Amino acid sequence: MDIFLNFLTTTAVASMTKGNALMIVIGIIFLSLAIVKDYEPLLLLPIGFGVVVGNIPFSSEMSLSVYDDGSVLSYLYLGVSHGVYPPLIFLGIGAMTDFSTMLSNPKLVLLGAAAQMGIFLTFIGALYLGFDPSEAGAIGIIGGADGPTAIFLASKLAPHLLGSIAIAAYSYMALVPVIQPPIMRLLTTKKERLIRMKPPREVSQREKILFPIVAFLISALIAPGSVVLMGMLFFGNLLKESCVTERLANTARNAFIDIVTILLGFSVGASTQAQTFLSPQSLLIFGLGALSFCVATASGLLFAKIMNLFIKNKINPLIGAAGVSAVPDSARVAQMVGQKEDPHNFLLMHAMAPNVAGVIGSAIAAGVLWSVLV
Q1: Distance CA 324, CA 328 (A)
Q2: What pTM value is reported for the model?
Q3: How many angstroms from the chain centroid is the CA of residue 294?
């Protein structure tokens, strides 16, 4: 009986706190959103299961968590805490991204740039709420709706906030189909939503090959802090567009990015232990992240409306919301909202231009913040 009673004290049930139980419920909610609602399942499923794993209590004599030196999870988490996984994911994103639409209509790049307004306004808001400049910069980048970029910058500027920032960034990325449509309908008229855009021109192979080289040089010279992210993004794109390394490009955009996504999502989820994650500070970060994402969406929409005052071939303002870099979900949302007004209006390819421009813009913004705040 003594042995049995001693065994009971070693179980996770005996050490379970209300915080651990709450985080496990949150992890299960993430799993439900991924499986039932199909909200970013490639991200939310590994993160959700990681949250459940990370909140199973264990004896202090056992090294199991991501914060225990020498544990398996701590080695996996090194890719998050040292900012290794995000550039590797950017390599895969580059290998699967087609910049043709953006190159065919370069003015749409401005929509991706305008959507980054949410980053800098949230940075100011975080400073006002008492966060130091480094923390505010790491929180502000959530508005870019780019999980890898948010993790990369947080690992450099505010490692102690990494778990909260990563979960907030990926949560809002997954909720793009829920958050963006009301803002899009509020800020546009029916007439604007019905605008049909001219088909994009055909882009030559030479342009596609030159673009990653030229774009990397420009972005690196403007924001040296973005060299790693931009270098991997454009390297992956060059593997794709050069047409001489198809095997490497195929690996980067399939097996490679899938492996890194699994490790990143699971590690981030496992880092959300209730003892470190549940705090008023985390709630503030989630609130600021939501504000940042909404401002970024609105900025892209409103800038598209402003551009229409000065150009002949009108832009459907809905594609401005795709300036946040949640690729390709925000572009799909623009298509979905547009087709509710006109089933024969196809905005997806046009929306991909500000969408991929947003990826570049958020990475450059991260580089600028890192350079200034480090």
Answers
A1: 10
A2: 0.90
A3: 14
Beta carbons within 8 Å of 60's beta carbon, 6+ residues apart: none
Among 66, 48, 70, 52, residue whose Cα is nearest residue 12: 52
The b/e string for 271-304 (b: 16+ C-beta within 10 A; e otherwise) is bbbbebbbeebbebbbebbbbbbbbbbbbbbbbb
Q: Is 184 left (phi over 0), alpha (psi -120 to 50) or beta?
A: alpha
What mean pLDDT do residues 302-310 have?
93
Could you tell me what percent of the chain has a pLDDT over 90?
54
- The secondary structure of residue 308, as a DSSP letter, is T
- Classify residue 331 by burial, with Cβ atoms within 10 Å: 0-12, 13-18, 19+: buried
At position 6, the amino acid (one-letter code) is: N
Candidate from 1-10, 215-224, 251-260 with smallest mean pLDDT: 1-10
Task: Report residue 39 as tokens.
Answer: 């909200």
Q: Please write down the HEC assignment for all residues of 194-245.
A: CCCCCCCCCCCHHHHHHHHHHHHHHHHHHCHHHHHHHHHHHHHHHHHHCCCC
Instruction: Judge whether 234 and 94 are in contact, CB under 8 Å.
Output: yes
Smallest CA-to-CA distance from 54 within 358, 215, 283, 276 is with 276
DSSP-derived secondary structure letter, 63: -
Q: What is the C-alpha radius of gyration for the chain, rounded to an integer number of angstroms?
A: 21
- Per DSSP, the three-state class of 343 is coil
Peptide bond into 328 cis (omega under 30): yes
Cα separation, 104 vs 92, whole angstroms: 23
